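Many groups now describe folds with learned vocabularies. In that spirit, our science desk offers one protein's residues alongside their backbone shape tokens.
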Amino acid sequence: MNGIFEWKNLGKVAVAIVFLALFIGMSIILGYTDTSIQLAYEAFTSFDGRNEHLIIQSVRLPRALIAACVGASLAIAGVYMQTLTKNPLASPGILGINAGASFAVVFVLSFFEVSSLNIFTWVAFLGAAIAAMVVYFVGGVGRKGLTPMKITLAGAAVTALFSSFTQGILVTNEAALDEVLFWLSGSIQGRKLEYLTSVFPYLLVGWTMALVVAPMMNVVAMGDDIAKGLGLKVGLLKLTVGIIVILLAGGSVAIAGPIGFIGIVIPHIARRLIGNDHRWLIPFAGLLGGVLLLAADIGARYIVMPQEVPVGVMTALFGTPYFIYIARKGFNKG
């Protein structure tokens, strides 16, 4: 019986891979500049410098790869945060990780003359790490330690705090406002391949760690007491998960700004389609996250063409109703 489920899950992962490849191809072809499959093929096999070839190679391919990587990273981070906190609404955006990374980047942009992608990457990681530590510390104060409700409230408070700091900086620095406003809404438009290559090693480490500890998360999902009884070092595992979330969420913010709802919506969809076994859930959620962000980015190109809507606005359009559905479902159960 288990063999049947394994084959079914393998088939679902294979289908998700096909969809990811399909949407990457659509992202390369579709947009304001009219191109085709033939032109895309020629751009990589017989590049001749024409405008369409330049757009495909230097604009659309990096954009497609960035969307796939950021979507996968946010989805995986969301799965781990929801499992660890036992909170269906947990995500990098809700628990302050994105807000901390965003504040750090805006602070550096506003007060220092920095243009190095590597510096932005480390600044985003630092902001994400500080936010995570504050949330864990505040959520763990008092009786019963770190509970799902306390960590959610702590995350909301930290998000509000860092968001207020960010808005305060932007109000007093109009030049910074012009520079980062589009980035703060969450966007991959105009991002060069260098943005991804500077962060990709950290994302790769995060993905690898996520796959390695996935079997242990099946035990943690049953409760800390059971996990400890089975000999699992829960404290060390939680620290590892925290590092994974910081690498994936911090790296994503460094590339594309704070894109919301991917980390909330995708884990729930993935669980419905493939179940709660993290050995399958993690890679499947990553693939679905890439597909969803690619689809949102393609849609963002056509809403107000020739202008583009930031992809963060698109994810909010379909993510908000699902967020409300999840919240209502949770409250009804309670």
The chain has a mean pLDDT of 84. The two ends are 34 Å apart (CA to CA). The chain is about 80% helix and 0% strand. The first helix runs from residue 2 to 29.
